[in-house]
């Protein structure tokens, strides 16, 4: 009888501890309004919605939903018809439209097919810039030669608050390619895959990138 009472006491103490833990844990509930939801739809098989971010061009403008579609077909003039991926601007009451990137593109030195632009989309906040990444972007050396090599370095691009390619973006409009001019072996930077994650620091003064494939996939 004493053993049974002791077990019952321990069980009650455990219940009390769990109740305290539940009360102390921060949490909130909300209901999803499915009856009046705003639905945004992108191209078929484009992975539309892989990454999203809310963006506001200024304090007086309405919020815009930015949507990454890493397998979308490009509508840009220089890369039309290539599955580069895309970023879509989706105002609340309007149809989503792809943001024009118009990369400076050299087919002899770059491969943008299946680069997965839109795997990451980040906004620096109201009036801030927008960052988008393509972690499968490749640099090509000695194309169509027996010594041809391809390095999956990845890249990220910076857009202004108004969603235009930033005039101060690096590498002559190609974006931020951190691993581009470094040792291209897999032991170093040849498979960087920069941009599998990226973002802005809290003060929005700096950008950070993840490069999971660097140093034999140890990452940096």
TrEMBL record:
FG-GAP repeats: 31-99
PROSITE patterns given in the database record: FG_GAP
GO molecular function: integrin binding
InterPro entries: Int_alpha_beta-p, Integrin_alpha_N
GO BP terms in the entry: cell adhesion mediated by integrin; cell-cell adhesion; cell-matrix adhesion; integrin-mediated signaling pathway; leukocyte migration
One cellular component (GO) term of this entry: external side of plasma membrane
UniProtKB keywords: Signal
N-terminal signal peptide: 1-24
Name under which the protein is recorded: Uncharacterized protein
Species: Eptatretus burgeri
């Amino acid at each position: 009888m004493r053993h049974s009472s002791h077990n019952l006491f321990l069980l009650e103490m455990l219940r009390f501890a769990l109740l305290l833990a539940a009360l102390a844990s921060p949490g909130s509930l909300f209901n999803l309004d499915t009856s009046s939801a705003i639905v945004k739809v992108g191209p078929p098989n484009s992975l539309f919605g892989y990454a999203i971010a809310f963006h506001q061009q200024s304090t007086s403008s309405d919020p815009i939903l930015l949507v990454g579609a890493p397998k979308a077909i490009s509508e840009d003039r220089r890369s039309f018809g290539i599955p580069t991926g895309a970023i879509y601007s989706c105002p609340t009451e309007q149809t989503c439209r792809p943001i024009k990137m118009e990369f400076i593109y050299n087919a002899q030195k770059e491969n943008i097919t299946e680069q997965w632009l839109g795997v990451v989309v980040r906004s620096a906040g109201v009036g801030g810039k927008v960052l988008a990444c393509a972690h499968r972007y490749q640099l090509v050396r000695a194309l169509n030669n027996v010594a041809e090599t391809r390095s999956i370095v990845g890249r990220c691009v910076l857009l202004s608050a108004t969603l235009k390619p930033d005039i101060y973006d690096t590498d002559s409009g190609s974006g931020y390619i951190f691993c581009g001019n470094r040792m291209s072996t897999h032991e170093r930077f040849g498979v960087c895959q920069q941009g599998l994650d990226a973002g802005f620091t809290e003060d929005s003064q700096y950008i950070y990138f993840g490069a999971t494939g660097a140093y034999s996939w140890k990452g940096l």
